[in-house]
Amino acid sequence: MDGDFVNREMELRSLGEWWSKRGARLGIVWGRRRVGKTALIERFAAAHRTIFHTGGRRPVADELRTLSTTASAVLEGRDLSLNPFHDWADLLESLAGAARTTPALLVLDEFPELVAVSPELPSVVRAVWGRIASASKLRLLLCGSAVRTMEAMSEERAPLYGRVDLSLLLHPFRPHEAATMLPRLKPSERALVWGLVGGVPLYLKWWNQAKSVRENLLDLACRPGAPLLTEGHLVLATEGQEGDHSRQVLHAIAAGRTKHNEVADAIRADPTRTLDRLVALRLVERIVPVTEDPRRTRRRLYRIGDNFLAFWLGVLDRYRVEIDRGLGGTILPVLVQHLDDHMGPRWEEAFREHLRRAAGEGRLGRDVVAIGPFWTAAEDPNEIDAVVLAGRRREAVLVGEARWARSVDGTAIARDLRRKAAALPRARDDLQVAVCARETVRGGADLAFTAEEIFAG
User: Fold this and answer.
1) Are 190 and 179 within 8 A, CB to CB?
2) Which helix H or strand E contains 265, and what residues bound it?
3) How far apart (Å, rounded) are the C-alpha atoms in residues 455 and 457?
4) Which residues are registered as beta bridge partners of 85?
């Protein structure tokens, strides 16, 4: 991959398989803002005959006029400068005719912006698709960042229900994927950057690899109008929906209200639907002890699942007003003091993500069924950062602990883990112990992990 596009191999494969099927094809690509939807589609579209249009909530006539100009290279036999598309049906049927023998791709990016000025557009797509589906090789990709709007388009009773051949939800990069965007940093530095800005490609691009952590925080967070300082507001504004409680729920969880009833008390409303949507976006993570059935247990906690949002809500936001007043330089040392506390939970999740990746590659056995944290009742606290369950009986085959420290005593941690493992409902006799540190694990552990393995570029 070139320097401007990395990762997304699985998504590109899905798009390629979708493209290769017969007949007209309709796909949806969606995900939160900044996650790289447009970059992915541009990469895919570069190999195909493509009309790419980004909705701008302009008057319909202007949107169609712009599309007419873009489509002129594909649509032969019609002078679109003199006879532009006069409505959406004309656009779709004309392009379907131009793609009878040779496939063509129409991309409508920011599709919710088009629907805002043409509410009938999904119904028009459905009606036209019914006529052209078997007679054309037109491929239509609808893309957008208004996640709930995109998700709802293919739900039952929605106009496009049953018509969509591909629904591709993009998420931020996982640790090893984020590492590929930070090749000039040491693995432990990549871990820190991922822990602060998460896996959103644009945020990772903002990080200047030639500068220190302090210099980057000063540039990106400690100046009035700095990118990371303002981005938190944009995330809260764009990921919320009219009538829901996204902003209040996120603030409540960041403030330590991690139980459903605590969130409900904080916002004075039922947060269930909002929590479900934020979990689907991976802005919030719903955590249950890995040994329990998430459908039945009441022992569930919520935490901010997006690293950047956790940093912004938990650290940056409390200093935002004074940074805007010009005190960023003196606040910077205080931000740095927060980093280790912030990184603890992020490092644990990076460890669990690495174990999931290892399991997917068959390195933890062939019958792994779940990986997650474990804890016991508050009156007898017993926490394990990662437990790997295997087989139909969901037996523990590995327990692990991750510490955001440069070097740890693996022997002592392994001994403590084996003691904690006695609280697990079922464990195999050959239970393994894994210890994770930033740079070095000293002494005995069955498996040792560091940032060098987790954030290998």
Assistant:
1) yes
2) helix 260-267
3) 6
4) none
Q: Report the Cα 412 to chain-centroid distance in Å.
A: 36
pTM comes to: 0.89
Buried b (16+ CB within 10 A) or exposed e, 221-239: bbeeebebbebbeebbeeb
How far apart CA 290 and CA 385 sit, in angstroms, is: 10
Give the pair of three-digit tokens for residue 238. 């764009």
Q: Give the pLDDT confidence of 203-260 residue by residue, as tens digits.
A: 999 999 999 999 999 999 999 999 999 999 888 887 666 567 899 999 999 999 999 9
Which residue is it, tokens 């947060």?
Answer: 271
Q: Provide the CA 380 distance to its chain's centre, in angstroms.
A: 35
Long-range contacts of 66-75 (CB under 8 A, 24+ apart): 67/91, 71/95, 74/49, 74/98, 74/104
pLDDT band at 1 (very low <50, low <70, confident <90, very high): very low
With vertex at residue 368, the alpha carbon angle to CA 366 and CA 276, rounded to the nearest 5 degrees, is: 145
Contact 143, 2 (CB under 8 A): no
d(CA 20, CA 24): 11
- Across the strands, what pairs with 399? 387, 433
Could you give the CA distance from residue 138 to residue 129 in angstroms, rounded to a whole number? 10
Task: Concatenate the DSSP letters of all residues of 158-211 into one string.
Answer: STTTTT-SEEEE--PPPHHHHHTT-TTS-HHHHHHHHHHHTT-HHHHHHS-TTS
